[in-house]
Design goal:
This protein is an alpha/beta fold. It has 18 helices and 23 strands. Bound molecules: adenosine-5'-diphosphate and magnesium ion.
Length: about 625
């Protein structure tokens, strides 16, 4: 879209000149020395704001009228000769990049009034294209040898109507690439962070146009803040121009967010509450009962999921290798046994988690993919799958047995090295996937046949299975007592909901709200999910327990016993991986009560769970 000519309300170049001289002398000097290698000046928005009365005006103007501000700053640099290259010349061009904006605009809240304004969006990178040159100033030549220049913007290539030289009537002109100017360009797609979404909303995305020295600096899966000018572009439907416009962000600067769980804010009051809860002697019961309270039974699975939420501690080995702290859990079970429900619940309790299906609809699947599609406009695009998007969190993957073949092999690397390598066409990249995997799968023939060998009914290779710290075989056998309990459990959840709804419409005489809430109790979690998330985030941030001698002894003893009784023909071999798993789980166990020390009790707890899992699949 052609930009509406902007009103020049007084010349601000002088103010910018004063600002830059007083605050960015050093940086400008550096650019002078290193130009053109260094050709971007990064200006902190807060610095502008703090530059007295003029600063507030400049800062406001940047948000409202960024196109003009960029020109003003460039004028200021030229007028004051703030940058001089080593041969004493003026630089051809400079990028002025602004960071650290006070307000973030949610992607789903971007509106037409934001067009041509400077905004800041936050999210996770889903796609990045290859870096390719884009023409910014095209030079054309007519048969008579005259040159015509045409400035190009992001989007459609614009050709002149004919030779622009006075008196020349040639309509036919040809592009002269050698005389034209190009810039490195890359297109990104940023998606709202999963933790900002509640209640299974689909994340929305925004496309970003990145140029020059910012290209190639980020990878899919990165958590970023992107600042830039929101632009619009007319849609073309079946060759006809539409009245509807698309938006994209002309990227001005990128900030990479690295800190873990910084999204979860914990104030002093919450911290006190967390510490108090951690000392409760019933903490394990409370935590476990807060995972999917509407699901009856499955105590061991819930305990495993709890441990997974807290996680072990990642370690860097002296030789530079990395030992994961994330705990992977797999549920293989008959249909209708609440696997999906459990997966959905963990997403609610975790500070950062995403739910996806192995049969995922996106082309990136679980890991990552390189494609050449419309998005890249001819360039290859690298797209992050679920395990990359879940970096530093939990990936709940349902229907894992139905995943794509490519994912299956990439998953090996993702689960152990916690990275995903893509090498296809011109793209070679290693994406981070430091996440814990909670997988759910059905048995090979749909249901477990209790008379057959369980091992034969698991539809996954041993190499993959051995990467899970815990594997649960969940069989659905009719058992009157349990069935009755589940029936009551489900009906209670339904009944109480109805009661509340009805009570809201027409209060039932003699029934108080408290009474209904009392009835609601059994299916309410002991710790509500919002607070639970804080608890988990706090523990992962602050608690790094180490093994006590007693715990170490118990774990090693159990491991040696396992090696002695493991059967070689079982689907899960007992290897050093189990030892690592035991340590991770014990770390998580200590983290639940925010303890610095892994006690014998932690070891016992996790040996009990590991043993229950392995009994079905590693030995009899
Ligand atoms: P799966 O993914 O294992 O096929 P679902 O998670 O879709 O099964 O569960 C099917 C339904 O049965 C859900 O509505 C769930 O709430 C209910 N259900 C199954 N087992 C239990 C249980 N132990 N307690 C309460 N509800 C259950
Ligand atoms: Mg299911």
């Amino acid at each position: 879209m052609e930009k509406v000519p902007e009103l020049h309300q007084g010349d601000r170049a002088d103010d910018w000149g004063r600002f830059l001289k007083s605050r960015y002398k050093k940086e400008l000097g550096e650019i002078s020395r290193l130009y053109p290698h260094r050709r971007s000046l990064v200006v902190d928005y807060r610095q502008i704001e703090r530059f007295g009365k003029a600063g507030i005006t400049l800062a406001d103007e940047l948000l409202e009228n960024p196109g003009k501000v960029l020109e003003d700053v460039w004028d200021a640099i030229k007028n004051n000769q703030l940058v001089r290259t080593r041969d004493g010349k003026e630089p051809k061009a400079l990028n002025i990049r602004f960071t650290n904006l006070p307000k973030k605009t949610a992607i789903r809240e971007i509106r037409s009034e934001d067009i041509n304004r400077f905004i800041s969006v936050e999210g996770i990178l889903r796609k990045t294209t290859e870096v390719r040159p884009r023409i910014v100033e095209a030079v054309f030549k007519c048969p008579a040898g005259h040159f015509t220049k045409k400035t190009q913007k992001y989007g459609k290539f614009i050709e002149p109507d004919g030779c622009a030289t006075d008196g020349c009537t040639f309509k036919k002109v040809e592009l002269v690439p050698k005389r034209s100017t190009f810039v490195d360009s890359q297109k990104l797609r940023v998606q709202e962070s999963p933790e900002g979404l509640r209640g299974g909303e689909q994340p929305q995305t925004l496309d970003i146009d990145v140029t020059d020295d910012l290209t190639g600096t980020v990878a899919p899966g990165d958590r970023v803040v992107i600042n830039g000018i929101l632009r619009s572009m007319q849609r073309v439907v079946k060759g006809e121009k539409s009245t509807v416009f698309d938006i994209f962000l002309e990227c001005n600067s990128i900030e990479i967010a690295e800190k873990e769980f910084e999204e979860v804010e914990i104030d002093e009051e919450a911290e006190d509450e967390i510490k108090k809860l951690s000392k409760d002697p019933m903490i394990y019961r409370m935590v476990t009962h807060s995972i999917a309270p509407t699901i009856y039974g499955n105590e061991d699975v819930k305990e495993a999921i709890t441990l997974q939420l807290f996680g072990g501690i990642a370690k860097e080995m002296p030789d530079g290798s990395h030992l994961r702290g994330d705990i992977h859990v797999l549920l293989i079970g008959d249909p209708g046994i609440a696997k999906s429900q459990l997966l959905r619940y963990i997403v609610k309790c975790s500070p950062r988690a995403i739910y996806t299906s192995g049969q995922s609809s996106t082309s990136a699947g679980l890991t990552a993919t390189a494609v050449k599609d419309e998005f890249g406009e001819g360039r290859w695009t690298l797209e992050a799958g679920a395990l990359v998007l879940a970096d530093m969190g939990i990936a709940a993957v349902d229907e894992m047995d139905k995943m794509q073949k490519e994912d299956r092999s990439a998953l090996h690397e993702a689960m152990e090295q916690q990275s995903i390598s893509v090498a296809k066409a011109g793209i070679t990249a290693t994406l981070k996937s430091r996440c814990a995997l909670l997988g759910a799968a059905n048995p090979k023939y749909g249901r477990f046949d209790m008379y057959g060998d369980i091992a034969d009914q698991i539809n996954m290779p041993p190499s993959l299975l051995s990467r899970f710290d815990l594997i649960f075989i969940m069989t659905d056998q009719p058992e009157q007592k349990r069935d009755l309990a589940i029936a009551e459990h489900i009906l209670k959840a339904h009944g109480v909901g109805e009661l509340i709804a009805q009570h809201k419409k027409t209060p039932i005489p003699g029934v108080t709200q408290e009474f209904i809430e009392q009835q609601l109790k059994p299916v309410m979690p002991d710790i509500d999910p919002a607070f639970f998330r804080k608890y988990v985030a706090y523990s992962k941030r602050t608690c790094f327990p180490i093994l006590s001698a007693e715990a170490k002894e118990a774990i090693v003893g159990y491991y040696l016993k396992l090696r002695g009784i493991a059967e070689p023909n079982k689907p899960v071999p007992v290897t050093a991986r189990q030892l690592e798993a035991l340590v991770r789980l014990a770390e998580a166990s200590a983290r639940i009560r925010l303890s610095d020390k892994i006690e014998a009790g932690d070891a016992e707890r996790v040996i009990h769970i590991v043993d229950a899992c392995l009994r079905q699949i590693a030995y009899d």
